[in-house]
Write a structure and sequence with these properties.
The structure holds two protein chains of two kinds. Chain A is of the alpha+beta class. Helices cover 26% and strands 25% of the residues of chain A. By secondary structure, chain B is α+β, with helices and mostly antiparallel strands. Chain B has a five-stranded antiparallel beta sheet, with helices on one face. In chain B, a hairpin with a 5-residue loop joins strand 4 (80-86) and strand 5 (92-97). The relative contact order of chain B is 0.10. The chains are: A alpha+beta, B alpha+beta.
Chain lengths: 611, 321
């Protein structure tokens, strides 16, 4: 038996060595010079890897380049993992070429639906260093996950998610278990406002904190990458939250950039907090309902680190840490009768009689500017199925997409791409208005000057379009207390209240629910004016994972319960509250639940002293 | 509401339903009106007579009220005189001015056409921000405006609510919105229920207002959905995605009448994405339902997107074991 094992082992080494010399796998996100391409790590869990995205808003982006080593000369088949993100009766929107040492391979890429390996061409390569170039042709969201060169003409690359994962590990000679291990008192996953507040609050209490975040800047939805302003009140944590929040500029404003700088500078002041930017968590290990470690991967280099700690905070928004660890969670809209969350004023729009998946949707913010001269915008036939005749020049929070058939996590790429179609199609329509006689209402309200309108549209160019989804709602981890609309409506008093809010309970619905002819990418808000309300600490730790806190939109609540506290100063309060709770856990070697059961007064006093 | 019908009754009723729906509640269609009740909630100083209107067939079609209402506290605006109309579920439809009584704005300036249009749009918006505001939030009292025709001053309209009101007629807009969308709705509904009949129900089911349709749907028991499937299918066809999904969820599937299963599926091409999704969820929910409905879906498979196709495939595999 042992001989058989040795034989198998040797065979694996032989094949592995052989394939590595006769094949090269390059992860696109690891390109040394990314040019105008951006790393998109949002959909790793669905399609397998961060990828490079040619996000040029209609203008082809600069080439991305890198070098690779060829060990054995030969005739190589070159494959590229890519996707035609809007297949149809038009030229694929995201086309690009691959060049090796400046020579373009024969086939244009980005043509086939779904993530797949597209054949780029054959190339004779000598031994040595070669230069790879990704050359974008459209500026419309072409995408490249990986490039694979092999001398084996018959080799089939896997498409199945799990098979692909194993294949990648084998080709790259990497285990999925990190070699590097680090230890902290507390690991916070997700560097949005909630996670950042948690890191600061815990660090102020003397904890050694790791803050893992998959983007280069902190802030999440408030960052300059998504640009949603922060709403809500400060509660007990004004000092901490003022280090992180934003001004009340319009959503989508470039003013978010200066708040990024403020946020980063403030987090970096805490020497016992280690931000791991551009690291995306991909696994959490748990034993006996307790998390032992979280693994994260650098989104460009692939470097993997295992984070070990006695306590974890899930501020990923999508509740990934809880999900991987086996935490109970909810998704979707509960029936109105399940927790008696009826509000007659808005009836079914507020809360359905039958549970469904129409959660509040995700937004992609965008805007245009006057270029001071005539600017062309290409035809986008692939966008018109979504945009239809809708015309717009910028997009605020109402640009939001949710569908009963789409999951905000599993189908996030589809949702983001749907918003791209909505944006590019609507902008095209705006620049090419259908000139028509004003209708009776317009004629009365104010004359429509078609010539002036056309001149203004001619000079408009897209200024900024986010490529990151600004999510409102997805998985909600279940805590010891499930927060509902009634807690807001009745201003329920909690002995363990740690988060306080006065804003309206604000739930969205897609406007096409009431009129199918309206765009399916726009929403409307319903506001319930509540008296001041609070959230109990028991909604901020997992019911069944003993060392897991949650802060952010993935806290323990119902769909409607989320309506009030989902904004970022409020989620920031959650973060600060659990950061401080973690320090009490450390002091007494206690669990989050123990803090409620045995140390509540001390904990609340500690919060009170934060002002 | 289980009412057994005879064939002749159905025929007459269908004729009437064709000629009636909320959209036909126009001055032309109303042939009679009579006092229904007096509406006098605490927040309004004056009571208003609400009349119920009927058409030539003596069927109720809606409500109206001629109001004479003070709207502001600072003596700068005149009373509002209007005729207000609601449908049978108390949903505001429109207003008409009364002869010689135009609406006025600050300083007694008359409404222009654009003001009337804007007021109509605001009053029709049940989701208006006015729902949230207190009266004292309507005016920025730090900015004083001097009236020329009256010896008084008032404040300016805060920028945040300018779109939600007719400028210069902030109080009028506010008071009218709360009047036409407020508790009068409940009072009207109560009155309608007192006189509720199948003909009223059918009329409401074919309304273009989803809340009116819902009012009638919520008064049906599950069996009614099959029993009255003809009008229910019509309501589905013309209804919003929200109403269609509500109806689909209320159906007790499979229908006892096999032809009705077929008829339900035949509506699929006319449905929007949301109600298609809900219908597919319903017809893939159990082995019995899958066995009946999946074969019926065959002509429509080309209309399905990838996710929907996968849903049917999964159901087919799950229940064929």
């Amino acid at each position: 038996m042992y001989k058989l094992f040795l034989f198998s082992l040797m065979t694996i080494f032989y094949i592995s060595g052989y394939t590595q010399k006769n094949a090269v796998l390059i992860e696109a996100e690891s390109f040394a010079n990314k040019g105008g391409w951006v790393v998109d790590p949002q959909f790793v869990e669905q399609m397998g890897s961060p990828y490079l995205l040619a996000h040029g808003m209609g203008i082809p982006v600069k080439d991305a380049t890198t070098e690779m080593k060829v060990e054995r000369p030969g005739l190589y088949m070159v494959w590229v993992r890519t996707k035609n993100w809007v297949p149809g009766k038009w030229d694929a929107p995201g086309r690009f070429n691959l060049l090796i040492d400046g020579k373009k391979l024969e086939r244009t890429l980005g043509l086939n639906p779904d993530w797949n390996w597209e054949f780029a061409g054959k190339v004779q390569l000598s031994k040595g260093t070669k230069k790879l170039t990704l050359h974008d042709l459209t500026g419309f969201e072409g995408r490249c996950d990986a490039i694979y060169l092999t001398t084996d003409e018959s080799e089939k690359m896997p498409d199945d998610k799990d098979a692909l994962k194993n294949w990648r590990s084998q080709k790259l000679g990497m285990s999925i278990i990190p070699k590097k291990t680090v230890q902290y008192d507390l690991v916070v996953v997700g560097g949005g406002i909630a996670g950042s507040a948690a890191a600061i609050a815990a660090a102020e209490q003397g904890m050694k904190v790791a803050l893992i975040h998959d983007r280069p800047v902190l802030g999440g939805n408030a960052s300059s990458e998504i640009r949603v302003h922060t709403l809500g009140i400060y509660g007990k944590f004004e000092r901490i939250l003022k280090m992180l929040d934003t001004e009340h500029y319009p959503n989508g404003s470039a003013e978010a950039l200066k708040d990024d700088q403020k946020r980063m500078a403030n987090v970096e002041k805490y020497k016992n907090t280690s931000p791991f930017l551009n690291f995306r968590a991909y696994a959490a290990s748990a034993e006996n309902q307790k998390i032992t470690s979280v693994d994260a991967r650098q989104t460009s280099t692939g470097e993997m680190i295992r984070f070990i700690a006695p306590l974890f905070i899930d501020s990923t928004g999508d509740g990934w840490i809880g999900y991987w660890a086996g935490a109970e969670y909810n998704y979707g809209r509960e029936s109105s009768s399940q927790y008696n969350e009826v509000w007659d004023a808005h009836g079914l729009l507020w809360s359905p009689e039958t549970p469904d998946n129409m959660v509040m949707g995700s937004s992609v913010l965008w805007g245009s500017e006057n270029a001071g001269k005539k600017v062309q915008f290409p035809e986008v036939p692939w966008a018109m199925d979504v945009a239809k005749k809708y015309a717009e020049k910028n997009g605020e929070w109402q640009w939001e997409y949710s569908s009963n058939d789409l999951n905000q996590i599993d189908d996030a790429e589809t949702i983001r791409d749907h918003m791209f179609q909505a944006i590019y199609g609507s902008f095209y329509n705006y620049k090419h208005p259908i000139t028509k006689k004003p209708n009776a209402d317009q004629a009365v309200i104010g004359s429509v000057d078609n010539i002036k309108q056309q001149q203004r549209a001619d000079s408009l160019q897209l200024k900024w379009v986010s490529y990151l989804l600004g999510k409102r709602e997805s998985r909600r981890l279940v805590g010891d207390y499930l927060y509902t609309f009634n807690d807001e409506k009745d201003s329920k008093q909690f002995e363990d209240a740690v988060v306080f809010e006065t804003r309206e309970v604000d739930v969205h619905y897609q406007v096409n629910l009431l009129d199918q002819d309206k765009p399916n990418f726009l929403s409307e808000a319903m506001f319930y004016k509540a008296k001041p309300y609070s959230i109990p600490y028991r909604s901020l730790y997992s019911k069944n994972i003993s060392n897991l806190f949650m802060a952010g939109r993935n806290f323990s609540c119902t769909h409607v319960g989320l309506g009030g506290p989902r904004v970022m100063r409020t989620t920031g309060q959650m973060g600060a509250a659990v950061g401080i709770a973690a320090s009490v856990c450390k002091k007494y070697n206690a669990t989050p639940r123990d803090v409620y059961q045995s140390h509540l007064k001390e904990y609340l006093d500690l919060i009170e002293s934060q002002k | 509401m289980q009412i057994l019908r005879q064939k002749w009754y159905v025929i007459i009723l269908l004729f009437l339903v064709h000629s009636l729906n909320a959209a036909t509640f126009s001055s032309d269609s109303v042939t009679a009106s009579k006092k229904a009740f007096v509406f006098k909630p605490d927040e309004f100083a004056v009571g208003n007579i609400i009349k119920i209107c009927s058409n030539a067939h003596l069927l109720p079609v809606g409500y109206e009220s001629e109001i004479n209402m003070p709207v502001c506290d600072d003596k700068l605006c005149a009373n509002v005189f209007l005729k207000i109309k609601w449908d049978l579920a108390g949903n505001f439809l429109r207003f008409d001015t009364l002869a010689g009584k135009p609406l006025t704005k600050f300083d007694h300036k008359r409404f222009v056409d654009a003001d009337y249009i804007k007021l109509g749009q605001i009053l029709n918006d049940r989701n208006s921000i006015l729902r949230l505001l207190e009266k004292d939030e309507l005016i920025d009292k730090s900015i004083k405006l001097k009236a020329t025709t009256v010896d008084a001053v008032t404040g300016a309209t805060p920028a945040t609510i300018k779109n939600a009101v007719v400028e210069g007629a902030v109080y009028s807009t506010y008071v009218l919105w709360h009047f036409v969308n407020g508790s009068v709705r409940d009072s009207i509904r109560t009155f309608t229920l007192r006189n509720y009949s199948e003909s009223i129900s059918d009329q409401m089911l074919l309304s273009h207002n989803y809340e009116t349709q819902l009012f009638a749907l919520k008064r049906m028991i599950p069996n009614d959905y099959e029993l009255h499937s003809e009008i229910i299918f019509r309501a589905m066809r013309q209804g919003s995605p929200l109403i269609r999904a509500y109806i689909i969820n209320k159906f007790q599937l499979p229908f006892q009448d096999k032809l009705k299963n077929q008829e339900l599926v035949s509506i699929f091409p006319e449905l929007d994405g949301y109600s298609r999704s809900v219908l597919l969820d319903r017809i893939t929910a159990s082995k019995e339902i899958v066995a009946i409905f999946l074969p019926l879906m065959t002509p429509y498979l080309t209309l399905l997107d990838q996710k929907q196709t996968n849903k049917l495939k999964a159901a087919s595999q799950t229940y064929s074991k």
